[in-house]
Records
---
Amino acid sequence: MLSDNVSVNTLRLLMGQTDVNAGSVSGEILLLAKAIDDPYSLPYLIEELNAIEIKDEEMVRFALVRVQIDSELRMNEDIQMHQRRRFVAQVMEKLLFGEVLIEMGAPLEEI
């Protein structure tokens, strides 16, 4: 675990990297990780999420999509935990970008 109870595994997933150096993690990724690791904190992070200035929108968007994909793939391991993680990632994506890039269950033509 890193500061603010953010797990290294969540940072790896968000960053799409297997080797994560705590010093190279941006504040926006740490904020996303905080919400994903503790879904019940999301209601208290809405204003902070809304106020962040995203330096690399594509990187943040793909980070949220990775969480959604990972949660779908691991759903049978712990259904409640992965449903919450997917929900949090979708809410943050909707809040930050106005839409969800991949709707689970959407026909591929729409993606």
---
Amino acid sequence: MKQRYLYLFLTLLTFVAGYVFLRLAYGVTDEFPFTQEIVLIVLGTIATIIITAALLNRQTELELRKEQQVKTFELKAEFYVVLIDFIEGLISASKITDEDRLRMKFLTHKISIIASPAVLEEYEKFLEVFYKIAKDDAISKMESKTLSERLSHLCSKIRQDLLGDEGLTEEEQNELDEQILENARMS
């Protein structure tokens, strides 16, 4: 941020110094109209260069930010798919091993790096249910349904994190959450 202000200050200083110099040069050359025109051409060229440089700098900054957002999105999406696939495998196997618990711990560390606060909050609720069910190393049909329901809540928050559903009203978001939950119940 300080570097940005330094560049802004140096640009302003250069512009003011250039303006003063060209103003003096214009005043000195008032006896020769052709020379005045050359000074005006130089002034116009300098103004065009400064404006173009500022626009290109801003455009580059926006492009870099966009690339970073795309990479972050891809990283999140890839991780969330891995997480959901792992949970799907647990529910399908109907058995939880020590290796599964260990993998869940590592996934917990990874999700803490990339997930939004809402996803982390919902993931914590999912983990509470998961570890209650995991005590006996088996997943019954009823426990499977409970896990699936918690997973649907988690998926809703993941969706918000990935797609940025900030444009939805609270009512629309609740309807969407209910639809996701209903889909989980039906499957």
